[in-house]
Each structure stands twice: as C-alpha cells, then as structure tokens.
Write a structure and sequence with these properties.
The structure holds 2 protein chains of 2 kinds. By secondary structure, chain A is of the alpha+beta class. Chain A contains 2 helices and 6 strands; from the N terminus they run αβαβββββ. In chain B, helix 1 packs parallel to helix 4 and helix 2 crosses helix 8. Chain B is globular and about 70 Å long. Classes of the chains: A alpha+beta, B alpha/beta. At the A-B interface, helix 1 and strand 6 of A face strand 1, helix 1, helix 6 and helix 7 of B. Strand 6 of chain A pairs antiparallel with strand 1 of chain B, so a sheet runs across the interface.
Chain lengths: ~110, ~220
C-alpha cells in the first residue's frame, strides 16, 4: 500500500516537472532508497508501472539504488555501518543516523523536444 | 537526444510541503501535535479516553480509521473535540488530509492535537504529518519481539507506550528483551507501562506531555 503512495507521489512530481521543463519523454527515473525505509523495490517498480500506465509517463523505467545504514557516534565521532546499535569504537549507544533514511529522486534521463 | 537531469529531491516532496505548513502553523500557535501509532486494538483510543478523564489537558483528536465513526464517538462522549477521517482502505494518514481535518477543530483553545493514526505498525511511521513527535504504542499480547520486527516505528518515536500491562502475569512477555530491544533502536525513548482499565501510567504520560507543551509554548512565535 505504501509503495503505491510513493509511486503516485513520484508520478505527480514528474508530470509537473515534465510540463514545466518541456521534456518530450521521461526515459528513466533513478531513486535512492535507504535501508531503513521499509520499501520493497519490486513492489515499488510494479506500482509505478501501474500508476503511469496510460499517462504521459508510460514506459519510464525506475531504477533503485539501495543506500545502506550508517551511524555516527555522538560521543567519539566514529562512523559505522550495518545493524550494530552500539559504537564499535567506544560502545556508546548515543548515535545519529547519517545514511539509511534516503527517499529521493536522484536524477532522471529525459528526452528533449526536437 | 536524451540527457541526464540531476534532481536530488525527496520522493515525498509534495507531502512534505503539507507537513511543513502544518508545523509552521502549529509553531505560531504554540500547539503541540502528537502522532499516535500502534496496531488495531492496542489501546490507542482507550489511552486517549483516560488522558481526557484525568490529565486536565485541553486536547483535540483527529481519528484515522478505514471505516466507521466509532472511535470518534467514544471521544465525543467525553467532550473531546474530534474529527473522524475514514481512509476507505488506505493504511495510513497523509499530511494533506490532516490539514483539512484541522480546519474543523478549535485549535486556538487546545494544548495538544493528537492524531490517532490508522492501526498499523508499518506505513504510518513513514508519513510525516507535521507532528512534533510520534508515540509508538504496543500492547503486551502483541509480543515482546515487535520492536525489532518493526524497527522504523520504534526508532523514530519519542516515547513508547506499553499498554495492557495488567495482562503480563498471563503472558510469556519477555520484558527484559523488550526493554533492551527498544534501547538498541532508540536509546533516548522512555517506555511508559500503561493500563487503560485502571489509568496506570497516565500520570507519567501526562507529565511528559506537559513538559513538551511547555517547550512548545515557550517557542511560539
């Protein structure tokens, strides 16, 4: 369900951008999605294909880059990746998430009007 | 000829604009907004009823459910200003819906606005509604393993309300594992044990709310 909301949101941004910038066609949409974001890539691709069918975006391909989780320690400043909740340097649990929450449209491949 | 255009914009840009507008308007009013997220039947409405009965706080509620006005009626009976939103199958609330619902509430006379999200531990956690913080609710019968199974909710909430603690003697609920798992995901979030039948825990919950309300009002513009 929530992949459908994301697909609709991507499609609606692209339709307004396409109009605004006068592109002929959107060929590819490159996304960056963090590992913390509970997104199932295959379902998102299927949802995007479904919501764009019969629209001016039909045929645009989604490609998804998975961004792994990365934490920074608030006590010693060390960075680490993966599921370990504690800082491997100093054992602190005071951390901030520096990567893994991404949910963004990184870039597009478009064809311009000739 | 095709070309590459760099965008680097959020997928939920449109939703985030609504959320930012809500945050901005709440900031002006000094109104605290709390997004309550938990499974169907975990006690979200009951905790709001107890809060209405004993906290002395003036609050409004936006109720999200797939169908019926049942939850709104329960709160309405206690004199709580409430708006019911039916999602007709939608599994979470989004900020544009909240903005509309807020128009029917007496926001200027409230200390807190609660959003009782659709019962679900997954997508409600993903959608920013413009709230100050999320409260994650888990009832003891759901099992102590849930935080690690639904990490996004538990790591992005400011507080965890553990409801139905009166049932603990009858359940194989591993409290030690539960507390450790919550701590792993979210070292700063307090866990408040609650019992909606007796009102246990409401005092601590109210204390936390009062603190947040004070901070919010102090920063009102």
């Amino acid at each position: 369900m929530h992949e459908v909301s994301l697909a609709e949101s991507i499609a609606s941004s692209l339709i307004s951008l396409k109009k605004e910038r006068g592109w002929e066609r959107v060929v590819e949409v490159r996304l960056r999605i963090g590992a913390l974001r509970q997104v199932f890539p295959e379902i998102l691709c299927f949802a995007f294909e479904t919501v764009t069918k019969g629209t001016e975006l039909e045929g645009a391909e989604l490609s998804i880059e998975d961004v792994p989780i990365s934490f920074r320690c608030r006590d010693c400043g060390g960075c680490w990746g993966g599921d370990d909740p504690l800082c491997p340097e100093c054992g602190s649990m005071h951390r901030e998430t520096v990567a893994g929450n991404e949910l963004e449209i990184e870039s597009l491949e478009v064809e311009e009007q000739t | 000829m095709s070309k590459i255009v760099t965008l680097q914009q959020s997928i939920m840009a449109e939703d985030e604009r609504f959320a930012a507008a809500i945050r901005e308007s709440n900031e002006r009013r000094g109104l605290l907004m709390v997004n309550m997220i938990g499974s169907p039947g975990c006690g979200k409405t009951t905790i709001l009823e107890r809060t209405a009965q004993s906290s002395g706080l003036s609050f409004g509620v936006i109720e999200g459910d797939l169908a019926t006005n049942r939850d709104a009626e329960r709160l309405d009976r206690l004199g709580v200003p409430v708006v019911q939103v039916n999602t007709h199958g939608g599994c979470h609330l989004e900020a544009n819906v909240i903005e509309k619902a807020m128009e029917s509430l007496p926001l200027d006379s409230l200390d807190v606005l609660f959003v009782e999200n659709v019962g679900n531990l997954v997508c409600p956690a993903e959608f920013d509604l413009g709230e100050d913080f999320k409260a994650a609710l888990l009832s003891t019968p759901e099992g102590a393993d849930k935080p690690l199974k639904y990490p996004y909710l538990f790591s992005s909430s400011k507080v965890v309300l553990l409801t139905k603690v009166d049932l603990l003697p009858y359940l194989p609920f591993d409290m030690k594992m539960f507390s450790e798992d919550v701590k792993k995901l979210n070292p700063e979030a307090p866990v408040i044990p609650m019992n909606g039948m007796t009102g246990e825990g409401v005092e601590e919950w109210t204390k936390l709310l009062r603190e947040k309300i004070r901070e919010k009002k102090a920063h009102a513009r």
